[in-house]
Amino acid sequence: MNPAETETTSRPLRLAIVQRVCTPYRRDLMLKMTAHTGIQIRVFAGDDVPNNKAKNAADFKGLDVVRLRSWFVPVKRNYLVFQRGLLRALRDYRPDVILCEGESNIPGYLKALLYRALGNRVGLMYWTQGGVPGEGRNPGKLRRMWITNAQRRFDHLLAYSSFGKSFTEQYGINGEAITVAVNVGNTERFAERADGLQIDKSAARRHIQLPDRFTILYVGQLDPDKKPDLLLEVARHPSMRHCNFVFAGNGQMLEDLRRQSADLDNVFLPGRINEGLDYYYRAANVLTAPGQAGIVFSEAMAFALPLIVGLSDGTEYDLIEQDQSGRRVTPVTADAFRAVFADLAANPEKTARWGERGREMVSTKYSQVTMAATIVEAVRRVHREKVAHHAGGTARAEDAHGT
């Protein structure tokens, strides 16, 4: 055994995680990953991205985080984020495996590829959403070609959902090189908060000044790709006037939605809820998202809310057992959503049963603890394969030289 192999087996596996920012729910996930024995984690994160809801956690207690100064290059509605000193920081840490944020952090994963190209023996992993339902097979051919070419340079991919894995496989990526770690929030914390809120739905509605009736909750930015206007169309229908529609969030559509709903007494737009969101989850009967959403799904399921969603981020294909923990609604039309809401409003036992099934799912199969364990096992697999590959290469070289 050569000295490098001896060092690798005598110390913890070093994992570097490269992200634009380390959000609160990512911090919680990575803290759970550090609880696994034999692995050491260091997170490399930059400054908060301007005009982006993804921000660094305020507190990194218990987590090894290297903060790197960033500079931003605007590209359409987003930014390329360049983290200063990333190569040097990786060289100082000497990771065994690097896990890179994928499509949203191109400069970060290019530096990881460069780090390996400079002669460093390291396993590389690419964290990908894969694709978005409804995006189609060709969401911009040049962009897709770039993504696929980048993914093929990595040893392993980590997908947000089974949908994301299937989507990625369409472009020739071997499914054996993709691990699905369904993207969820801190389900354990939200379940604790749900259990600690010792009031029923009626009391929660009184607390947030809602009429005591069937309540449909939307949580997230009020932006066009999330389709909150479709829900407003549903709320306006005469058959839905006995239901509350609550839009908890800010965004470019907030004031316009307030103007459009001024004549409706069943629509509530409180803006973003920084404190007291638990009361809204408890007051609701269902959580809905006609368009893009994600982490909010697992949070709502921890409060035993069924999910009624359209085409979202792909995690709905894992988190929703159709007509068991919620409904993926097709086609994504106001009439289709209205039919589901009407059915559940008329069948409270079914609504409760779907919610309890969702709570069970995020308490077991799709908890953040299981997500962390899945990622750690994938990291270990990449490391084992990289060590075996280099060991095989060394043996072949020795044989070729007659040693």
Automatic annotation (TrEMBL):
SUPFAM superfamilies: UDP-Glycosyltransferase/glycogen phosphorylase
InterPro entries: Glyco_trans_1, Glyco_trans_4-like_N, Glycosyltransferase_grp1
MF (Gene Ontology): glycosyltransferase activity
Chain ranges of the Glycosyl transferase family domain: 208-361
Signal sequence interval, chain numbering: none
Domain Glycosyltransferase subfamily 4-like N-terminal: 36-183
A Pfam family the protein falls into: Glyco_transf_4
Stated name of the protein: Glycosyltransferase family 4 protein
Upper lineage: Bacteria, Pseudomonadati, Acidobacteriota, Holophagae, Acanthopleuribacterales
